Amino acid sequence: MPNALLILVYIRHTGRALSNETTIEYIRVWITGNVPEFIDADGATYGPYKSGDYVKLPKEDAERLVSEGLASYIKQEPSLSESARLCPRYQRA
Can you give the pTM of this predicted structure? Predict the structure, then answer.
């Protein structure tokens, strides 16, 4: 009868990436303009987004949108003129 060896291995996920894998950092930003749908380096599809959306994006993309003026790290309140335009009570006849 041939000899046999049975080895059982239990692998537990630690939540940490392996050293040779790239870890993608995500951050949240406020969208300040219209952003069309795009595919990131992680292969995921993001968007489309409109002004006022609060989204979680890969840090690299969020920083790019901020530098292009399409996103902000802080919520942008409407200007006084924009508020007046949106309020029917103060619209000119």
Answer: 0.62
